[in-house]
Amino acid sequence: MTTQSWHERAAAVQIDGRAFIDGRRIDAASGARFDRISPVDGRKLAEVARCAAPDVDAAVASSRAAFEDGRWGYLPPAARKRVLVRFADLMLAHADELALLETLDMGKPIRYSLNTDVQLAQNCIRWYGEAVDKIYDQVAPAPQDSLALITREPVGVVAAVIPWNYPMLMAAWKLGPALAAGNSVVLKPSEKAPLSALRLAELALEAGIPPGVFNVLPGFGNEAGQALALHMDVDCIAFTGSTRTGKQIVQMAGQSNLKRAWTELGGKSANIVCADCPDLDAAVAAAIGSIYFNQGESCNAPSRLFVEEPIRAAFLEKALRLVPRYAPGDPLDEATVMGAIVDAAQMKTVLGYIEDGKAAGARLLAGGNAARVESGGLYVEPTLFDGVDPAMRIAREEIFGPVLSVLAFTDLDEAIRQANATPYGLAAAVWTADIGRAIRTSRALRAGTVHVNQYDNDDITVPFGGYKQSGNGRDKSLHAFDKYTELKTTWIQI
Ligand code: NAP
Ligand code: MG
Fold first, then answer.
1. pTM of the predicted structure, to 2 decimals
2. Up-side HSE of residue 132: CA atoms within 13 Å toward CB?
3. What is the distance in A from the centroid of ligand 1 to the CA of 417?
4. Cα 365 to the center of its chain, rounded Å
5. Residue (of 35, 15, 10) closest to 25 by Cα position
6. In the chain, what percentage of residues exceed pLDDT 90?
7. Whole-angstrom Cα distance, residue 456 to residue 428?
8. In the prediction, which pLDDT does 191 show?
9. Catalytic residue among 102, 191, 223, 264
């Protein structure tokens, strides 16, 4: 579609910002609303229901009733499969609309909203839908006078609290396995990007997911989010967001009913490029492409690049030639690969880290400034620091913006040690032509995912999640069912 057509659609878009409870659109009980301002151009997009404790009570009661009467969980598996596959089909049928909402809400380029986020999200729902009638439980090796069954049952009411960087995809990573397992879900999207989740709830209802099985409560973290985490009738909270909030979620679970608390948190992922890297151009393209993808607002962004000294100069020369391609552009232009930063607070954080890197003595080789100021939106240049010391804040803290820190190394063991010297453990990568070195390094890296000679080319079939303070539990793959099911033993005397 042309940029002009996207802008015409954007200008005409009608957004219903009310919550979605028990199959209906509804205002917050207090009547309170908040404004959604687009980071694309500073325009007010919608007024959104500011849900709080009374709305959480209503949504949880609705989800509890839906769970108890079995309107969803007791359907034959093949029937749940058909509904989830229909839900995925409807997402595809509404791909343009969903992609536009996502781009306007949080600023990512329309080409990615359309070809990455909507596609991955619908595929996730479809994949779990298709799994429903293909998973078997177990019979234990019990003595001859007994029959011992090990079965999985849904946990009940699942609260999903998600961030703004991949709003639709993070919703799908929770919804897919939670709904497939037969639970009811109350979803709280981020106040910074609630719009696609609200539309998803309508599509789910249209697909045949019964009222109450999927409720969406927009609102603030310290209001709706906190009320969910403290709720005595929520059985499980599946959280994706910052490590700081993740710690609070786990505490609130302990402080209330010990609901199962699963956390998918931040990262500071290391990308190690050895001198014997089999394809330097591919390594450069992946390093640069992955740190600037989604404006650097990715939990698994390879924000620390360790390059072996003999190839450092060649690597940087190639990298600096690629960087200008990621200059921010109009997110509604399908040619744009870098969009807007989600909001002014995040932009300030990112620019603050850039100032910090400069002051600490890192060499700024590209970017460093705000961009497209005349648009009224929020944009930052793709930024690259060389000569970064492991002790600098830009090497230690998650920036969540388009900022790459390059650290040189001469000894691989020392690079691995530094790669692991972080509270995080989400992802990592190593590039080498030596299979033994690749395996030794991937074993030594304390991260939930290790990429070898590529970055982030995985898919729904493998688990995603963190070691250490990057969280617990795993999204994606059949392992995600561990989060949304209880294991039951039934021992039968014959
Ligand atoms: P965040 O500030 O922790 O917020 C995440 C969610 O928690 C939002 O819905 C937020 O609501 C809510 N929240 C905030 N305070 C809360 C509280 N006291 N009680 C309950 N809920 C609360 O994180 P973010 O800035 O949205 O997201 C960025 C972070 O997510 C990064 O650290 C990134 O690495 C991480 N992330 C991790 C993964 C993964 O799979 N490991 C994937 C994507 C992102 P409001 O926004 O409405 O305040
Ligand atoms: Mg907040």
1. 0.98
2. 29
3. 29
4. 30
5. 15
6. 100
7. 10
8. 98
9. 264
Residues 6+ positions from 240 with CB-CB distance below 8 Å: 161, 162, 163, 170, 173, 174, 263, 264, 265, 299, 475
* Closest ligand 1 atom, residue 400 Cα: 31
Q: pLDDT, tens digit, for every residue of 154-205? A: 999 999 999 999 999 999 999 999 999 999 999 999 999 999 999 999 999 9
- Taking 3-state DSSP, the helix, strand and coil percentages for the chain, each rounded to the nearest 5, stand at 45, 20, 35
From the list 293, 297, 273, the residue with the least C-alpha distance to 284 is 273
The answer to whether the CB of 17 is under 6 A from ligand 1 is: no
Rounded distance, CA 402 to CA 384, Å?
8
Tokens 């290790």 locate to 450
The amino acid that residue 111 corresponds to is R
Averaged pLDDT, 231-255: 98
CA of 164 to the centre of ligand 2 (A): 10
User: What's phi and psi for 82, nearest 5 deg?
Assistant: -60, -40
Burial 147-169 (b: 16+ CB within 10 A, else e): eeeeebebbbbbbbbbbbbbbbb
CA distance 7 to 2: 9
Q: What is the pLDDT of residues 321-372, one digit of tens each?
A: 999 999 999 999 999 999 999 999 999 999 999 999 999 999 999 999 999 9
C-beta of 229 in contact with ligand 1 (< 6 A): yes
Phi, psi for residue 188 in degrees, rounded to 5: -110, 105
CB 264 within 8 A of CB 239: yes
Q: What is the mean pLDDT of residues 209-235?
A: 99
Distance 221 CA to ligand 2 centre (A): 5
Active-site position among 223, 299, 308, 381:
299
Cα dihedral: 320, 321, 325, 328 (round 10): 30
Answer positive or negative: Cα dihedral of 76, 81, 82, 86.
positive
Residue with tokens 């199962």: 260
